[in-house]
Specification:
Number of strands: 2
Structural class: mainly alpha
Shape: elongated
Strand order of the largest sheet: 1-2
Radius of gyration: 30 Å
């Protein structure tokens, strides 16, 4: 093989390596930007504060917003009642979503979900 063929081989190898590195860098940059967008959206969601009176949730009525540590000085009976009410509201909201989903899909409904059992 003549000496210039070795130069062509090495030039091709270096060019292919640079192309692979460039494509890998573009891939990593795009993935990194996607992670940053997701992290900023999550951070914005976590740091956004609800209104002072409460927030409206998918579950229904306004939820009470508490300062961390405030339960230490609160009345245990009142906290227990709020917990039970919230649990019942979440259970009813799940049932309503399940009934709506089954109605939308044309599936059979549970008698317990419809309150007939």
């Amino acid at each position: 093989m003549p000496w210039w063929s070795w130069i062509l081989i090495w030039v091709a190898l270096v060019a292919c390596t640079l192309v692979v590195l460039l494509l890998g860098g573009i891939y990593l940059f795009r993935k990194g930007m996607a992670v940053l967008r997701s992290a900023s959206a999550d951070l914005e969601r976590v740091t956004s504060r609800p209104a002072a009176g409460g927030t409206t949730d998918d579950a229904g009525p306004a939820a009470v917003v508490r300062v961390p540590g405030s339960a230490v000085f609160a009345d245990p009976e009142r906290l227990r009642e709020e917990y039970e009410q919230g649990r019942e509201q979440r259970r009813l909201a799940r049932r309503d979503r399940r009934v709506a989903r089954r109605r939308e899909r044309g599936q059979m409904q549970s008698l317990r979900d419809l309150g007939l059992n």
